[in-house]
């Protein structure tokens, strides 16, 4: 079950990350631009029902590009190491821990690595309560040295992982 979830998430992520994807609408702002998800095209492409909006949930997705002044391998290292990951966002990410390892490759590229993480986020506002999240983090080398890392929430999935 977990494997199917992460494979589906990876497939969706690769499609959504395509620069020329028609699933995104460009929005201009003062200091540049970003993109928002075209929900109608997304629903048409990936299916699914609209029951989340019926019970009061709201879906939002944006994407933007930025240059990170760090070697790509180091970025992957930070994201796959729970302790380092927590240090990346000290003002928001209060804690992070690995609770289960499904697969951890012996090579250095993390290809196929999959582990369950629990994080607690705290925002600098009393209006937003702290939140705990449990998710599977999955890393896959997809092509020509490109690496995809996806997080799949387990908060609404029943069972023991």
From TrEMBL:
Top-level taxon in the UniProt lineage:
Eukaryota
- InterPro entries recorded for this chain? HD-Zip_IV, START_lipid-bd_dom
An example Pfam family from this entry, by short name, is: START
**Name of the protein this chain belongs to:** START domain-containing protein
GO terms for MF: DNA binding; lipid binding
Source organism of the structure: Triticum urartu
Domain START: residue ranges: 1-155
């Amino acid at each position: 079950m977990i494997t199917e979830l992460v494979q589906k998430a990876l497939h969706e992520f690769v499609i959504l990350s395509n620069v020329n994807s028609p699933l995104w609408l460009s929005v201009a702002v003062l200091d540049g631009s970003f993109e928002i998800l075209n929900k109608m095209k997304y629903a048409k492409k990936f299916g699914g029902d609209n029951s989340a909006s019926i019970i009061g949930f709201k879906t939002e997705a944006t994407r933007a590009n930025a240059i990170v002044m760090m070697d790509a391998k180091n970025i992957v290292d930070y994201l796959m190491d729970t302790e380092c990951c927590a240090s990346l966002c000290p003002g928001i990410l209060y804690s992070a821990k690995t609770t289960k390892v499904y697969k951890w490759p012996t090579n250095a590229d993390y290809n196929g690595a999959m582990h369950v993480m629990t994080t607690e986020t705290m925002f600098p506002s009393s209006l937003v309560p702290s939140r705990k999240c449990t998710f599977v983090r999955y890393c896959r080398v997809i092509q020509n040295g490109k690496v995809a890392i996806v997080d799949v929430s387990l908060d609404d999935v029943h069972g023991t992982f």
